[in-house]
Amino acid sequence: MPEPTTSRGRDSKSRIVAAAAGLMYERGIRAASVDDIVEASGTGKSQFYHYFPDKSALVAEVLAHQLDQILDEQKGYPLDSFSGIATWFRALVERHETRWGLHGCPLGSIAGEAADHGESLRVTAADVFTRWESSLATALEAMRHRGELTDTADAQITAEAVIAIIQGGYLLSSIKRDVRPMRGALQAAILYLESYSPTRGPHVRRGTESNTLWT
After folding, report:
1. pLDDT tens-digit readout, 73-100
2. Which residues contact 114 (CB under 8 A, 6 or more apart)?
3. What domains sit in the chain, N to C, each tagged with a CATH number?
């Protein structure tokens, strides 16, 4: 699959991927036709097939695009602190409820369907989640080195568990069209992380005011 060599070409490819990401998130991979993607991106079919030999190649690019969007947003939060993680969790819920209309995770909803489109896309979907988990694990490892998490906290496993909790919250909120499962899942995630803290865990917090993300 050739990469664009001109700024115009890079812009065309970027618009195709962004348009496809939006349509696949709203409608699903199967329902987002090439014709719809071309129309939404303001490009032509010749451009589409120049950069993407088939739809699977496009889906792989969309998964990477969605992850990049998530990681870019995460940069606005200091995820190597409990307060930063809590702020990030609140932002996830707010965007889920308002901007995305409870349609599910912008990455997970596409990745889940992509995993059923052949082994190659399943591996790609798994890889993007591994990258997401690793970005959080790096932050958690920094907290562990500072003594804010105990040595029993395996950063990679803990990050994987937190992302799994987030995905479950997205899924239940999407199915129920209710933000409460997402809020509850993220509240459980912050309490799970605090269970590894020598100063914030339940053994310390007992008898004091509980740390809640929402009142």
Report:
1. 999 999 999 999 999 999 999 988 876 6
2. 29, 59, 63, 121, 122, 124, 125
3. 1-53 (1.10.10.60), 62-205 (1.10.357.10)
C-alpha to C-alpha distances, 191 to 43, 105, 143, 198, nearest whole angstrom: 47, 22, 16, 13
| Phi and psi, residue 195, nearest 5° | -65, -20
**How many residues does the structure list for the chain?**
215
Q: What is the pLDDT of residues 26-84, one digit of tens each?
A: 999 999 999 999 999 999 999 999 999 999 999 999 999 999 999 999 999 999 999 99
Quick one: tokens of 122?
Answer: 């399943």
At CA 121, angle to CA 136 and CA 40, rounded to 5?
A: 90
The SS3 call for residue 92 is helix
Q: Give tens-digit pLDDT for 151-182.
A: 999 999 999 999 999 999 999 999 999 999 99
Please state the separation of Cα 187 from the chain's center in Å.
Answer: 18
In 3D space, the residue among 148, 137, 141, 155 whose CA is nearest the CA of residue 200 turns out to be 148
Kindly report each contact of residues 88-94 with a partner whose C-beta sits within 8 Å and lies 24 or more positions away, as own/partner. Answer: 89/186, 89/189, 89/190, 89/213, 90/213, 90/214, 92/166, 92/182, 92/186, 93/179, 93/182, 93/183, 93/186
For residue 15, give both structure tokens: 């618009």
